[in-house]
Amino acid sequence: MGMLEIRNVAQRYGAKDVLTSLSLSLAPGRIGCLLGDSGCGKTTLLRCIAGFEPIVGGDISIDGVVHSTERSATPPESRPVGMVFQDFALLPHLTVAQNVAFGLHDKPADERDAAVAEMLTLVDMHALSARMPHELSGGQQQRVALARSLARQPKLLLMDEPFSSLDSRLRSQLGQDIRSVLRGLGMTALFVTHDQQEAFSLADDVGVLQDGVLAQWDSAYNVYHRPASRSVAQFVGGGSWLPGTVVDPTCVRTQLGVLCGSVSERAVAGDSVDVLLRPDDVIHEDDAPMKAVIVDKQFRGASFVYEVEPAPGIRLSAIVPSHHDHAVGERIGIRIDTQHMVVFAR
Amino acid sequence: MTLRAGTRAWQIPAVLIAALMLLPIAVAVGSVFTPAGEVWSHIAEFVLPRVVANTVWLTVSVALTTLLLGAAAAWLTATCEFPGRRWLGWALLLPLAMPGYVIAFALTGIFEYGAPLSSYLRESLAVELPRFSAGVASTICLSLTLYPYVYLLARQAFLTQGIRSLEVAQSLGMTRRRGFFRVALPMARPWLAAGVALVCMETLADFGTVKVFNFDTFTTAIYSAWFGLFSLTAALQMSVMLLVLVLVALTLEYRFRGKARYTSAGSAANAPRMQLSGGARIAASGFCLLLFALAFAAPVSQLVFWAWNSLAGEWGARYLEYFRASLLLSLASAGLVTLMAVMLGYSERRAPGVITRWSARVATLGYALPGTVLAVGFFVVVAGAGHALTAMAGWLAPGRGVTITLTGTLLVMLLAYSARFMAVAYGPLGSAFERITPRVDDAARGLGVTGAQLLRRVHLPMLRGGIATAALLVFVDVMKELPITLITRPFGWDTLAVRIFQMTTEGEWQRAAIPALAIVAAGLAPVIWLHRRSHGANGHA
Amino acid sequence: MNNASRAALLLPLLALAACGADAPESGERGAETPVAPVVVYSSRAEQLIEPIFTEFTKSTGIPVEYVTDDPQPLIARLQAEGDVTPASVLLTVDAGNLWFAAEQGVLQPVESELLTQTVPAYWRDTQNQWFGLSLRARTIIFDNRKLSAEDLIGYQDLADEKWQGRLCLRTSKKVYNQSLVAMMIAAVGEEQTEAVVSGWVSNLAEEPFSNDTRLIEAVADGRCEVGIVNTYYLGRLQREQSLPVSIFWQPAEFGGVHVNVSGAGIVKHAANAEGAARLLEWLATDGQTLFASKNLEYPVLRSTANDPIVEAWGDFDASEQSLVDAGRYQADAVRLMDRVGYR
Questions:
Q1: pLDDT, tens only, C254-293
Q2: B273 touches A: beta carbon within 8 Å
Q3: Residue A217: strand pairing partners
Q4: Chain C: nearest CA to B160, how far in angstroms?
Q5: Which of C136, C219, C334, C342 is best to mutate for the B interface (most B CBs within 10 A)?
Q6: Nearest CA to CA, how far is B152 from chain A (Å)?
Q7: Which range, B2-6, B100-104, B432-436, C135-139, has the best average confidence (pLDDT)?
Q8: Is residue C12 less than 8 Å (CB to CB) from chain B?
Q9: Which of C200, C184, C199, C308 is nearest to C257 (CA)?
């Protein structure tokens, strides 16, 4: 039984379906992430879980208790849920400590003060407890917002695009900090983002939400390497599509030769398919027999991303360690590593 | 706080504007050094005790009533869904275009003892309408015309952060009701405070409305000292007392606000409005409708009725002239005053400190002065400047007989309006400025955007809502303004308000209905435009 | 401050200065005519003076320009403008205001035999700095369903306790009442006046009204039986409907009817003193009928014909007490009324 169970949830704004028969389960202590473009419905789902919006079908239960059905909904304040808003939504008229204490209004003062101190220490903001929110940096506001939500000891923490307003360097550091805080508390958390790096680095379980449909809900590794659909594959990680024909259950014939690896089981010899080659599947080896012309390159610090043309009309991306510095127009050797071959029928 | 030299330069525009706005007030303050003699002992013994008590009572009751009406209406139309919500959203702004004394005489016309409505109720149903005391009647009429100041500003706050603040509260375990009082209201406080401050100043300066009900306030006492006791000195000295009162109030308000500077807790562009339950829907609709009916529909109907009766004798081509003058003056001063208020707010922001803060405070004082006192103060200064320039011209070019008259020029008229209405423009802009967080500046500077560029590319776009509100308020206020217009207008610049004055000085209230309606009509367009604008800025709101 | 922001500061001011320069200093309406216009500062409302000035211009060829405002701001304006004022004539209601203007030194004595002969001495300034041009009688009205003229004696009698709860008055802040009380102070002394006014206040049926029209309507509604108003307000109402309200004139033996004037004087630094004198003379003679009847007032030239509504009220004996007293004692009157709590 998951801490969060969502079954066949539907939501509609007027005539527009925002969420369609959506189900997922998040086990206690896991950090889940919903990944999707803006407008895909991920924030709506979060708001439905928090109780800000009613649902028109299915049900949502938290810790075994049903909180939303199409007929009834527990008000947000009665759900064991904490929420960190996208813009942190600190109360501008209260100090840091007062913000954290805000949700503890029903606790006795001494208990409240102790909890506030504990939370602020947890997020390393104790020294700034008398500051006003506008005196804080974005990262600091984020920590306070987290402390405020955690202070109520929710069973489930929801975070809406928690890092979108922070700069990228701060983002990964803060992400790891928050992850360790949540881990330390054994907190179950669900956050939404449009940034797959964020999703992969923070989440145990990742869901890809497209047009209100949960296209896949799986471990981060599987979402990348075993995408459930062509569009999930395209959305997560990207890569190049290579047309081919199935030779046998493990091999596909393409313009670049026969590629073998794990192919979808339903593939039957003779089927026309597309093979997804991720940038990390294309390996550069100076003495490899297959040669390709470099048409573009991007420097990424530790690596280059080369756009190469092994044959006319076929273009692949390759991630190459950055000591292999080749010029655009040069011919280099490449090898296709087909250990994780993602194949979809055409 | 120490400021860099470049930053200190930003104090200059603030001080200049404050100095300009201070001119008419300086005349009043100068009067303090002239003894007014026995007049004062009389005023102190027989007049002040009553008018001070009356004024405090009126200001507090109007402030509370407008706060209640304005905040409630703003909350309902900004965050809830109920029948009529869309049109009421802008319709509730319309009383802005109504001068207080017009509502006063129109409502009196409807509800007074001999009026058809009360006669009917008395004769057919044996129901006697309650007779309100002068103070209560003044409170009702002032509140009905002034609540839109609170409504307009509070609505801005609630539209941008109303629902969101409730959600924050709910996510922290509070009910909506509790969240409203603990989060939504406190967060809207700078807007509410700005609105109520305008209401208080307007109430303190009001003469027209209290005059209709013969309610004695500080302002009527000032006029009484001047017109009845023939002591302009005593009148000016009483005005200074009023100013000191206002300054103290403003300072207290600032202290009270303390460190709680206001930045938004985020916007909830996606948040849907609250769906009210059956009873609550009806109550919400009913409240807004009743407010609209009392503050606008009923008085306007009465005006239309009167206007129809006096149409033949009163209507004529001259109304085009009045309309044109009103419109031009209102537009020009809306532009000028808003511009100066932006510069004032901007200076305060770029060079924060005692100098700019007091500049802003001083520059906005003129709003609380009775209009005629301010107008005369301004006139005296300008005429003095004219004399001085004439003397200078005579010295530079002897025997040429050059005289320089500044009085009776549009420039002076617009400056006088600025002195009066700076507070009206500064209020909403001040709140808007506070919403631009220091981080925004840092971010922009980080991109190499500084100085005038920062203003033009970052702040002005972010201030757009505040600027529009400021300009609208000044526009409708100038449209209604009377004493300054009377004394400073050049020949041929009679406005609609002047026309109302001509009629009401002779007690011909019914004939004043046509110009009053014209003022309302001229105010409609900008009010609706403002609403459209704020509508568009808030997505599907 | 950098250049751009400095320009932002200066430009609007320059633009405004340009607007200011466009505006004519003293009006353009008469600019094309060779005859210098007479500029009038008037506290009489536009609709009451505009037709009269039109008539004046028609018969004399002298154009008139005017600015309307309350009397005190107009006097303050004349003082501030000093010798560069565009105004030549100050026209205002109430002798108190005219007296105050003379007192402030913004008017000049006028040597005009015509004026001194037409306007009785008690309706003009002792130094001829101002002249009453129309009479406004402030008298007693009564509910003719409950009372007849025999029940009434005069202003002071309304302080008698038999009028307890039957009297209505307009606010003491209106200059008409201030003048009425000021004249009473001059006539019978402050002590007796205070007793009278305090008697009035204790007889009030309702809080003082903000204008005479409301007061008359209250009498017509039967909410009070007697009141004190300017007659032309009754006249205006009677133009539209007949009311159960009659007028009572205090007889000459008790001092006659309190009258006030609307009048005018020539401004000390008059730009066009000659034209101003012509205007005053014309108003006192040829313009009398128009000037007075436009507002249902009484002409100072008593031989002039009246509006039928005014005729119907009958003849009265006007007080011949000098109206200079109205100004001289006005401040005392205001203080007195404050003291006895007459709002």
A1: 999 999 999 999 999 999 999 999 999 999 999 988 888 8
A2: no
A3: A207
A4: 31
A5: C334
A6: 21
A7: C135-139
A8: yes
A9: C184
Helix (H) or strand (E) segment spanning residue A26: strand A16-26
* C-alpha distances out from residue A272 to A269, A276, A346, B354, C259, Å: 9, 13, 6, 77, 113
Give helix B513-536 / helix B134-171 axis angle, nearest 10°.
10
Q: What angle do CA A337, A342, A344 make, to 5 degrees?
A: 140
Chain A residues near residue B261 by CB distance under 8 angstroms:
92, 132, 134
* C323 pLDDT more than 60: yes
C84 with B403: Cβ contact below 8 A: yes
Cα gap B64→C170, rounded to integer Å:
31
Pairwise CB contact (< 8 Å): A133 & B183: no
Tell me which chain B residue has its CA closest to the CA of residue C14: B411
Nearest chain A residue to B167 by CA distance is: A52
The residue of chain A with its CA nearest to that of B435 is A134
Nearest to C24 among B13, B226, B490 (CB): B490
pLDDT in tens, A94-126: 888 888 888 887 788 888 888 888 888 888 888
Token duo for residue B52:
């001070």
Percentage helix, strand, coil, to 5, in chain C? 50, 15, 35
Residue C13 has pLDDT above 70, yes or no: no
CB B229 within 8 A of CB B459: no
Q: What residues contact residue C144 under an 8 Å CB cut-off, 6+ apart?
A: C244, C245, C246
3-state secondary structure A201-269: HHCCEEEEEECCEEEEEEEHHHHHHCCCCHHHHHHCCCCEEEEEEEEECCEEEECCEEEECCCCCCCCC
The C-alpha atoms of residue B401 and residue B387 are separated, in whole angstroms, by 13
The backbone region for B218, taken as left when phi is positive above 0, alpha when psi lies in -120 to 50, beta otherwise, is alpha
Residue B425: list chain C partners with CB under 8 A: none
Looking up tokens 């007062």 gives A98
Flag residues of chain A having pLDDT under 70.
Answer: 263-266
* B535 — pLDDT class (breaks 50, 70, 90): low
Residues B270-323 have pLDDT tens digits of 567 777 888 889 999 999 999 999 999 999 999 999 898 888 777 777 888 898
Is the minimum CB–CB distance between C315 and chain B shorter than 8 Å? no
Token readout for C336 is 């007195």
CA-closest candidate to residue A324, choices A304, A309, A308, A298 = A304
Q: How far is B260 from chain A (nearest CA, A)?
A: 5
- ipTM of this complex prediction, to 2 decimal places: 0.83
C86 near B CB under 8 A: yes
Residue in B216, B410, B501 closest to C20 by CB: B410
Q: What pTM did the predictor assign?
A: 0.81
Q: What dihedral do alpha carbons C172, C177, C183, C189 form, nearest 10°?
A: -30
Residues of B in contact with A88 (CB under 8 A): 266
> What subunits make at least 3 CB pairs under 8 angstroms with A?
B
Phi-psi region of C27 (alpha: psi -120 to 50; beta: other; left: phi over 0): left
Beta bridge partners of A317: A307
Q: How many helices (H) and strands (E) does chain B have?
A: 26, 2
A touches C, CB cut-off 8 Å, minimum 3 pairs? no
